[in-house]
User: What shape does this take?
Amino acid sequence: MNLNKSIKIFMATLAVILIVHIPSNAKVVLPAIFSDRMVLQRDAEVPIWGWAAPERTVRVSVPWLKEEINIKSDPNGKWRVDVHTPTSGGPFTLSFDDGDKLEIKDVLIGEVWLCSGQSNMEMPMKGYTSQPVEGANEEILMSNNPSIRLIKVPRNASLEPLGDFEGSWEKSTSKTVAESSAVAWYFANYLNKSLNVPVGVIVSAYGGSNIQSWMSKQMLSDFNEISIPESMTEVKTPNREATLLYNAMLRPIIGYGIKGVLWYQGESNVVNPFNYEDLMVQLVKSWRKEWGQEKMDFYYAQIAPYGYKRYIYGKLVGERNGALLREAQLKASYRIPNSGMAVLMDVGEQDNIHPKKKREVGLRLAYQALAKTYNLQGFEHTSPMPSKLSRSGNELIVEFENAPNGLIIKKDVDNAASFFISSGDSIFYRADARVKSNKLFLSCDEVDEPIAVHYGFENYTMGILYSSSGLPVSSFRMNGWE
Assistant: This one.
C-alpha cells in the first residue's frame, strides 16, 4: 500500500475511534447514519442508537408517538431504542435530550435499501474518467426529487470493527446525484415513482473489492483457503483483503432499518470463481443474521460479460473465468431464498469493465423488488432460467422457467453468443437454434445424439436469448449426466 493511502485510511479510522469514545461529560452523539434528511424504514421497528455520558437518561421524542421514550445509557455511554414507524410521512424532527437537546430534522418515512459491492455499484452518475454512464447528463438534469435521499459510506478499511463513519444524508439534486451511485439512484427513482413513497439508499461500495472483504472473520471461518490479515503493515490492497471493508464500511450501519439489499460485485473474484457460490450464500445468510432479518430480500446483479486480460492483480485469469463466475452467481440464485438476480448479458463491453448501461441494471433490480418485495403485478421481472434438459431425435431441448410469454432469439447482434452442443465426448459443435414457447431446440449435423449444451459460456459475448419482454437469459451449461 502506498504511503498516502495508508495515511488516509489511518486518519479515517482514527476519526471514527475519536467519535465513539465518549467522555463522561458528553452530550448526546448520534452516528452518521442518523442525520438530517435521513429516511427511516416505514411500518417497521427501527433501531436508533447513539452515545451519551455513561448511565445518563436520554429522552427520545418522535412526532408520531404520543409519549417520549426514556432510555438510560450503559456504563460505556451506549444507548439504543426501537421505534415503530408509520406507513409513510414527513418531514419530521426527532429530538434526543439528556439535558442538551440534539435534533434531527427533515426526516422522511419510506423505503430504505442498502446498495453494496464494487466499482459498478460505486460508479457515480457522472461516470468515471472516459467511462460515461449512458444518458447521465439528462438524468442528472432531471434528478431533483426531495423524496429520494442518498448517503454514501466513504472508502475505508480496518482490522477491527468500527462504530461510525463520516457522512450525511442528502436530498436527490443534480449536484448530489452526479456524485452518487448510478445504479442505486436509478433503482431508487423507479421505486419512488412506482410506490409513491420516499426512498432512501445507503451506498457502501468500494471499487476493486472482492466478496471476502465484505465478510467478517466468523463468516469466513469455513473458508480455510482465505487468509485474514493480522496487521495493516501487510496490507497492500485493502479492498481485496478479507474482513477489512466489512469492519470499516458495513459494521457501522448494521442494524439500521432497511427493507433489503442490492449487491453488484464479482469482477474481482474472477481470478478464483470456484468458491464464489458458497461465499455468496454465506454472505447473504450472515448479513441477514446480523440485521436480525432472516428473510431480508437480497437482489443482485450478475456481472456483465467483459474481455478480461490475461492477468488481473498479478493473477492468471482463464478464458472462461468470467463465465464461471456468472455460473456461480446463477447457481447461488437457486440456493438463496428471498433473492433475485438481474442478468446483464446484453450490457457488457469487451474493453470496459464498467458498462455504460446503468439504467438497465437499476431497472432490472427494481423489477425484482417491485414484484417480489412489494407484490406489484402485470410485468415480467425475472430472466428465464434453464430448468430441464431432454432430447427428441437429434434435437436437444432446453426448457425454461420464468418465460410465461415465450422466448425470442435476437438477430444481427455483434459478438453474438453462440449455442454449442455435444454428445458427451467433450467436443462441442456450434448448433442451430430455434424457440417455441418456453423451449429452446438445438441441433447440428455433427452431433446425432446430443446430451450437453453451452450458451454464451465465455468471458465476453453478447446475449441473444431473451424473454419476450426483453429480459436476457444468463449464460449457462447443462448436460444429461448430472
Q: What stands out?
A: Confidence is low (pLDDT under 50) at residues 1-23. Residues 385-478 form one domain.
